[in-house]
Amino acid sequence: MTGDGADRTPGAAIDPPSWFSSGAAVSDPGIDEQFEREWPDCWERAGDLLDWERPYETAFRGGDTPPFEWFPGGRLNASVNCLDRHLPERKNQRALVWEGQLDGGRSYTYLELYREVNALAAGLRDLGVEEGDVVTIYLPMVPELPAAMLACARLGAVHNVVFAGFSADALAERMERADSGFLVTCDGYYRRGDAIAQKNKADNARLAVDRDVDVVVLDHLGQGVHLGEGYHDYCELIDAHEGAEVESVARDAADPLFRIYTSGTTGEPRGVTHTTGGYLAHVAWTAQSVLDIRPEDTHWCAADIGWITGHSYVVYGPLALGTTTVLSAGTADHPERDRLWKLIDRHAVDVFYTAPTAIRAFMKWGAEHPERHDLSSLRLLGTVGEPIDERAWHWYRDHIGGGECPIVDTWWQTETGAILVSTLPGVDAMKPGAAGKPLPGIEAEVVGPTGEPIDPGERGELVITRPWPGMPTALADGTDWGERATTERDGWRYYPEDAATIDDEGYVTFLGRTDEAVNVAGRRFSTMELESTIVGVPGVAEAAVVGADHETTGTAIYAYVAPEHGAEEADLRERVRDAVEDAVGSVAVPEAVVFTPDLPKTRSGKIMRRLLEDVANDEDLGDTSALRNPEIVGELQSRTPN
């Protein structure tokens, strides 16, 4: 590969390299205009990526207000689209590559995964799982997790994946909300070399649920599992139905495929139901057009399947396109900090998709770790989960992408199901720090407090002004979304609750959640603005800003800062304060700069700012089971002045 060069002037646009554009899945610079001219029929491109048992009548049916129907009249099965249809050409191609920690790794071809899914579907059917039933899946990152999802889809059942790190109470709450009478779990799994007793949590949750629950248990650790009444051994279930061919259940496009809960990092977790047709078409199209995934690729999205990113771009998007998808258990820095780069090298990964939080951790650990491995197989890099600052963007491209790979900075939510804002890597110039434009077919703008469009560069709130295929059931039906989905004088709108700016070329820069602000002495400061300023200080790897109670100003700013290796904390503290004063003003200078080896994060890579607020205010921390690094909590408490 030969790069086209990059201007390091802050905010400067970088054109996609010619070697990439010439072979990209989408390379037509007129695609935006074509989608706009043909909307909503333009979405037939997405629908036609799937196999339909009964063809849809039109891509979209609806007016200016809900109900909205995507691919009405169509019937399909998600499992068939991810497995059966690929067998004639790819039955011996790897579908899943799994890397464990202490428990090794293995891979499944499309034929092997098809057989596993059919056997499990037959076993679940014998346990009483029927079309429309909700099956809760409480598994770590093991191949049996996507197999269970696809087995449910094959039966027309709705899967409800709960992140394996959640507590028994959190699992029970999600099972109750979903009215789920079936649970698939395991005995345990390894995390940083320690065995986690998963079944104990599942047992406690089962006792707390006010209904009978059939439980399927995978003996993942291989140490034998005690099974009582109502429990069934996963492997015995598979063996008993070896060779089964389960007829897939065709579902209407609007029928539910799965239920998932928001992460709860910004508030109370919310249940979201995604449809079979619209969702699957949307993730397939964005996996192809934004992530440029091809059947011959090995694709690695480093998210946990317990979150929406894992659903969409570990399982459904890649498998719908017939590619090889990588699953990795454990953490990026165990047993060594070069683990990710070793796996990219080993499996010749083409597309790598991770969170900016992880990238800042890689920066903190040092470039010597990726430099020990051959990363030349990489063709495209992606980020997801939060905005990425320019410094981390360039480090990612230079040290992971060899200075040549395009980067797609994608924005979307659990509620949207799939990517809505990003550059198209074969078409659009990249602007480090800006996510990109609304994708073709997506209509979005940044508005002021009364809903009016604002001038380029002004801070406002992002609003989606037209429906999209991956929208959840409640939005399509027009129910249960309160003020986030409204019909105003200009028509229907969905407010994702994200602050943003938009430039004169339509590129959106995200500034964090609209409620992520600190009010000091009557002035409101964006946490994203403050954090970006701090991260821009040489020697700072990542930062999070929260408000703490203060006798004089009401609220004081506490900055939690993870320094790069070798940075001198005393000097760094003053440079952080000076940078904030220069960029924002003296009133925004942090009352406390707390240095920490890491920030508390979910497994999806989001910083748990609510937990940092509790630490800063010396309050009860509550349930920390969602953290991927719970060991950091005591460190934070000991270092925070209260």
Provide an overview of this structure:
The chain is of the alpha/beta class. It folds into 3 domains: 251 residues, Rossmann fold, CATH 3.40.50.12780; 140 residues, Rossmann fold; 124 residues, ANL, C-terminal domain (GMP Synthetase, Chain A, domain 3). 29% of the residues lie in helices and 21% in strands. It contains 21 helices and 31 strands. The strands form 9 sheets. It has a 7-stranded mixed β-sheet with strand order 5-4-17-16-18-19-20, sandwiched between helices. Strands 12-11-8-6-7-14-15 form a 7-stranded mixed β-sheet, sandwiched between helices. It is globular. The N terminus is likely disordered.
Strand-residue proportion: 15-25%
Name the CATH architecture of the largest domain. 3-Layer(aba) Sandwich
Q: How many extended strands?
A: 31
What is the helical fraction, as a range of percent?
Answer: 25-40%
- Per CATH, the superfamily of the largest domain is ANL, N-terminal domain
CATH topology of the largest domain: Rossmann fold
Overall mean confidence score, pLDDT: 91
Shape call:
globular
Structural class: alpha/beta
SSE arrangement:
Layout: H1 18-21, H2 31-38, H3 44-47, E1 60-61, E2 69-70, E3 75-76, H4 78-82, H5 87-90, E4 94-99, E5 105-109, H6 110-126, E6 134-137, H7 144-155, E7 158-161, H8 168-178, E8 182-186, E9 189-191, E10 194-196, H9 198-208, E11 214-218, E12 231-233, H10 234-240, E13 251-252, E14 256-261, E15 271-275, H11 277-289, E16 298-301, H12 308-320, E17 324-328, H13 339-347, E18 351-354, H14 356-365, H15 368-371, E19 380-383, H16 390-400, E20 407-409, E21 444-447, E22 460-464, H17 473-477, E23 485-488, E24 491-494, E25 498-502, E26 508-513, E27 517-520, E28 523-526, H18 527-535, E29 540-550, E30 554-563, H19 569-583, E31 592-595, H20 609-616, H21 632-639
Parallel strand pairs: 4-17, 6-7, 6-8, 7-14, 8-11, 11-12, 16-17, 16-18, 18-19, 19-20, 30-31
Antiparallel strand pairs: 1-2, 3-13, 4-5, 9-10, 14-15, 21-22, 22-25, 23-24, 25-26, 27-28, 29-30
Helix pairs in contact: 6-7, 6-10, 8-9, 11-12, 14-16
